[in-house]
Design brief:
Layout lengths: L4 H17 L12 H24 L3 H7 L2 H28 L1 H23 L3 H6 L2 H29 L3 H7 L5 H15 L1 H8 L1 H9 L9 H26 L20 H6 L9 H5 L12 H26 L9 H19 L8 H30 L1
Length: about 400
């Protein structure tokens, strides 16, 4: 199967759609704290879906993982652990900087480090990237993506300026630029570790191809290893929160809780601007009155979590498919991934009327950001196409 950058960009858009959409099903969860529904969905994201799809679509999965070099397995899992840290600190960034500035900083750093560090580390940056026409075009596309992320941040800032003082206080109650920049840097760099984990898993891809796995699915065994690392980080954090907030029983009983001091239910967590990674949501929800349920809908909650978790996994399912189509510049997949996430999450925000009443300035900046981000995917795809032509 010859690489096809056009198809690759399309796969990355599908991954961005999955990533931008996965939190929507969590809106159907009722009566659970954030840590409960996040871990329940996480089992599908990090364990069930990766193993199931890799088992169905690849050859000799267990044999491949058994034969894989120990170093490759270790580093892929280790970078998955670090990526998990980046995800959890994402919420702290929102807490100190707000959604717009925090998102721009974290995703900008994540895009830059996740895209550029693998070719720099492998020694290919100067020769294959800077030293070729196609590589330089891809660098232009990366720059346009970063510019689009920055403009998206400005759009969010313009939106926040239209909010009332009370709304601003609720959104960025603990604004702290110094702390926020530090945490955002940590989150952005650590979140980029997912790309490093995939790069560390290259020997696993080679092994699964030798066992007869189609080229399109070669990245699925690597996802298993990286996501085990990510699962470990999130599992430890969620279980700690379950113990701290006395919410562990929610996995097993339909008996509703009253307002739990220090714990956020799905209703308040989803209303928080930082809902995508809300390890700080418990502090926001303390003391907030919640509508009391007669009975927690356990089956429905697990079904919503299963849908959300599986949707989350599909972002990287399509990511690995897209990566196979990018030729020698597959490192550029990370930029395509970041751009696609912001494109589709912004479109969801528009569809859910989160930008209603934000003003012309914010709307114009958001439109410009989306134009730049879409343009960046086209430029990166064109650079990869030129690379194939040569």
């Amino acid at each position: 199967m010859n690489p096809n950058p056009v198809l690759g960009v399309f796969f990355h858009w599908l991954g961005g759609l999955a990533s931008g959409s996965f939190y929507v099903p969590y809106r159907g969860v009722k009566g659970w704290a954030w840590e409960t529904f996040w871990l329940a969905g996480g089992f599908f994201s990090w364990i069930i879906a990766p193993w199931l799809l890799a088992g169905l679509l690849t050859k000799d999965l267990l044999a491949v993982l058994h034969e894989a070099p120990a170093g490759s397995l270790f580093w892929a899992c280790f970078f998955g652990l670090l990526w998990g840290v980046g995800g959890l600190t994402f919420g702290l960034t929102m807490r100190f900087l707000g959604l717009s500035l925090g998102m721009a900083m974290v995703l900008g750093l994540c895009a830059a480090f996740g895209t550029l560090m693998p070719p720099i580390f492998s020694g290919e940056f100067m020769s294959q990237v800077v030293g070729t026409t196609s590589g330089r075009i891809i660098l232009v596309g990366i720059f346009v993506c970063l510019l689009g992320i920055a403009v998206a941040g400005l759009a969010g800032i313009a939106k926040e300026r239209k909010m009332s003082a009370a709304e601003k206080q609720a959104v960025i109650k603990e604004f702290d630029l110094k702390k926020g920049v530090g945490v955002a840097t940590l989150s952005g760099v650590m979140s980029a570790c997912f790309a490093y984990g995939l790069a560390a898993g290259e020997p696993i891809k080679e092994l699964t191809l030798k066992h007869g796995t189609p080229v399109l699915w070669q990245g699925l065994p690597v996802l298993i290893v990286v996501l085990i690392g990510g699962f470990t980080t999130n599992f430890v954090w969620c279980v700690w929160l379950n113990r701290k907030n006395h919410t562990g029983h929610q996995y097993f009983t339909s008996k509703p809780d009253g307002p739990v001091a220090g714990s956020a239910t799905i209703e308040t967590a989803l209303d928080a601007p930082s809902r995508e990674m809300v390890e700080h949501a418990p502090s926001r929800a303390a003391g907030v009155s919640q509508p009391k349920l007669e009975k927690v809908p356990m089956l429905r909650n697990y079904l919503w979590c299963a849908l959300a978790g599986t949707t989350w996994y599909f972002q990287f399912f399509f990511y690995t498919m897209g990566e196979t189509q990018m030729g020698q510049y597959k490192f550029s997949s990370w930029t395509l991934h970041m751009a696609s996430i912001i494109i589709f999450s912004s479109l969801w925000g528009i569809g859910l009327q989160e930008w209603k009443g934000s003003g012309k300035t914010a709307g114009s900046l958001l439109a410009l950001a989306l134009l730049l981000l879409v343009g960046s995917t086209v430029i990166v795809g064109y650079g990869n196409y030129l690379g194939l032509a040569h």
